[in-house]
Fold each of these.
Amino acid sequence: NKFELPKGSLNKKLRTLEVHLNRSIKIHEEAMLKERKKEPDLDNMLKKVPVIKTGKDDLRQDSDGLDEIYTDAQFVTEELGNLLLETFGKRALIPELKDRNAAEEKIANKYFGDASKVRDISRFTVIAKSITQ
């Protein structure tokens, strides 16, 4: 036992995760069926979307200083946020930057102190009725 866990200690947790994962897969499949009915050419459209393949470790900020990362994120949020608001109006949601304490905790616990790995300081949402909207 590599992690020296008591035998069977994860069984219940893994089953719970499996239930949630299967639910999520079912919701996704139902949503895709619904979208395919609205847009019969959806699969061909999706094939045309370029996929950027990179390892998670390759995705890093230009800086490892959290102050600079937050300054850059604020600039991007303002610039891209304004563009999204101009383009999509009220359908564009531009939330505040990630809470600084939450970012520091994530950097410490998930990225072993490497701030350059944090990628979710700013985020955006555009609400649409369908994938083609």
Amino acid sequence: QEALKDLQQSNNLRQRPDAVILQNLARAKELNGLYGSADRDYTVAISMTANEVNPFWLRSAMVKVQLGDIKGGLDLLKRVENRFPDAPEVKAAAATFLALRGEQIDAQRKYLEIPDR
């Protein structure tokens, strides 16, 4: 909650959108269950960094799942997966999307691609 207040104040003091502040603000909102607001902040941050896929886009994809926007989340996931195909977090998210689409066997296969640590 305190971080959320600090980030909101940073955003207000900045007086114009800043991608780093917005992605951190979105994450704080996400952790506090404010998914709609987090989605809006992630969307603006992504629009400001659209030429280069960033790992925080995966967080945005998962927020979209929380809001029921499976297609929007999947679109983002595909872009992240193209850039970071071997990242364990990306494989876990891909398994989640497959399971949401009812593709349980493919979801399990994707999940099992995650290396043990």
